[in-house]
Amino acid sequence: MKSLEIGWIGMGRMGYPMAERLAKAGYNLKVWNRTRAKAEPLEKSGAILVNSPSDLSNVDVLATMVSTGKDVEQLYFGEAGVLSGGGVPKIFLDFSSIGVDQSAEIRSRLSDKGADLICSPVSGNGKCVKAGKLSAVASGPETAFDEVKEIIAEIAVMGVSYVGDGELARFCKIAHNVMLGVVTQNLAEITILAQKAGVPRRAFLDFMNNSVMGSVFTRYKTNAMVNLDWTTTFTPALLRKDLDLGLAAGRELDVPMPVTAAMREALQAHFGAANLKKDPSAYLEEDFAAILETVALSAGIELESENSPYPTGLEIPQAAE
Prior knowledge:
Elements: E1 5-9, H1 15-24, E2 28-32, H2 36-39, E3 48-49, E4 61-64, H3 69-77, E5 91-94, H4 100-112, E6 116-119, E7 122-123, H5 126-131, E8 135-138, H6 142-155, E9 160-162, H7 168-197, H8 201-209, H9 216-227, H10 236-253, H11 258-273, H12 280-283, H13 291-298
Parallel strand pairs: 1-2, 1-4, 2-3, 4-5, 5-6, 8-9
Antiparallel strand pairs: 7-8
């Protein structure tokens, strides 16, 4: 499987460490990124940098990890896109989180070119990738999945779930991110409730993490909420996009989603509260867990860091550094 030549596009907070895992594992990896400097460190791990997406037209597998469906479409079919190079990769492997309809259209266009699409959205963030705690879901033709599942597994160490043909993995990822938003909003609400009653955030969240309601996610976010560390893992804008995708899917499939709708409005309040900051746009580029501040503001509380580091559970194993 490592004999396959892989093209990779996307060097963001997720894309870089994902590609790095493949390069360090010895895969034949060619990389393009709009900002070349972001990809250059991968050369030390054996990756080859190319000058244009079109230079990846003859790879066996073309992998993408970008922000939107529009980005995916442009990178595949655009004037200087992959398919403009004269060749057609056998399998397109998209890790991005995009809408179901757009994914289906992209799949149809690739099929017309004789290529298969495997969509494989992931669960986790850049630190999860580095710590070997990422998981993934995948859908598309099973024969094509069988050819790339080892590639996905090298990135998603916690496991990859194949859920069937077509865009089913997109639905799974949308549902996942809806839960991400709802859980974070509720975690913020109950944390502020406990704080206003007199319980330190660290003490309350430690109790939650050790209870049956605790999870990898609540433990990971505890340090951020205790110490007001809004280092970006996922922006409010990206979460809003995914909530909108979830609500749209619910309308299409006649599934009532009142909790999701309430979360969508709660998140919108965060965008309004950003206007109270000195630099609203910069604040909205910080991590979505900063909705804790919006909940606190509504409760009449001015938050301060508790200056009490809390283990995230995502510490990188020594051998993986």
